[in-house]
């Protein structure tokens, strides 16, 4: 895999050439926080609470399970690969965002799992295709920016970030399949039993 190591090194050097630009440093620190534990936890808690208030209890439990499963999968892969992180450019960045193994990027993977899973969950009950495209596209853009920030800050190799994106995407799509075939159908049946008529779930 010499070509991959060379690609990682060249990309790392390219990103390092921008390090030290004050506004860009600040922007990347803010972006990377959007894929961090505390921000993602708040996003998930808010989303689960919102689903509970509209009585989508199964979907709320599904979202929580999908996120927990993603965390466990990410940590399992890290523990198996045990790839050291690249040389950190600043001790503060390392202390804040680079304290565990490098492969895959946890920020990239979990931001993909959380934001894409939530986008797919909420677009399932949105009828206008333009709105669905906007929501999913925005989530993918956010995920992409989080991954780029990890490379810019020097806490991950490009291959770590790509692997995080890929792993998160696969897990989110698997969870979406499960939600569509079991969770959403169960909610529709339950809603039809409580209040017969088409479009019961969509009106929540």
Topology:
Blueprint: H1 2-16, H2 22-33, H3 37-53, H4 57-81, H5 91-97, H6 106-123, H7 129-152, H8 158-194
Helix pairs in contact: 2-7, 3-4, 3-6, 4-6, 4-8, 6-7, 6-8, 7-8
Describe the structure.
It is a single chain. This protein has 204 residues and is an all-alpha fold. The protein has one domain (21-192). It is 76% helix and 0% strand. The protein has 8 helices and no strands. It has helices at residues 2-16, 22-33, 37-53, 57-81, 91-97, 106-123, 129-152, 158-194. α3 packs antiparallel against α4. The protein is elongated. The model is unreliable at 200-204 (pLDDT under 50).
Name the features.
disordered C terminus; 204 residues; mainly alpha
What's the short version?
The protein contains 8 helices and no strands.
H-E string: HHHHHHHH
Largest sheet: none
**Secondary structure: helix percent:** over 70%
Q: Categorize the overall geometry.
A: elongated
Rg is: 19 Å
Beta-strand segment tally? 0
Instruction: Kindly report how far apart the N and C termini lie.
Output: 51 Å
Strand content: under 5%
Number of helices: 8
**Mean pLDDT across all amino acids:** 79
How many structural units, i.e. domains?
A: 1
């Amino acid at each position: 895999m010499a070509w991959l190591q060379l690609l990682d090194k060249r990309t790392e050097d390219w990103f390092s050439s921008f390090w030290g630009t004050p506004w860009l440093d600040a922007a990347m620190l803010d972006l990377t926080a959007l894929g961090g534990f505390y921000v993602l936890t708040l996003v998930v808690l808010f989303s689960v609470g919102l689903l509970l208030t509209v009585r989508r209890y199964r979907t709320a439990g599904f979202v929580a399970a999908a996120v927990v499963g993603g965390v466990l999968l990410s940590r399992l892969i890290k523990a198996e690969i045990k790839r050291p992180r690249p040389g950190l450019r600043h001790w503060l960045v390392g202390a804040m965002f680079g304290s565990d193994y490098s492969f895959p990027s946890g920020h990239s993977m979990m931001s993909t799992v959380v934001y894409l899973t939530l986008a797919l969950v909420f677009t399932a009950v949105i009828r206008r295709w333009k709105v669905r495209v906007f929501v999913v596209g925005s989530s993918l853009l956010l995920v992409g920016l989080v991954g780029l920030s990890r490379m810019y800050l020097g806490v991950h190799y490009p291959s770590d970030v790509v692997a995080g994106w890929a792993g998160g995407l696969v897990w989110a799509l698997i969870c979406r399949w499960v939600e569509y075939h079991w969770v959403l159908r169960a909610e529709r049946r339950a809603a039809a039993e409580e209040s017969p008529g088409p479009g019961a779930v969509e009106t929540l």
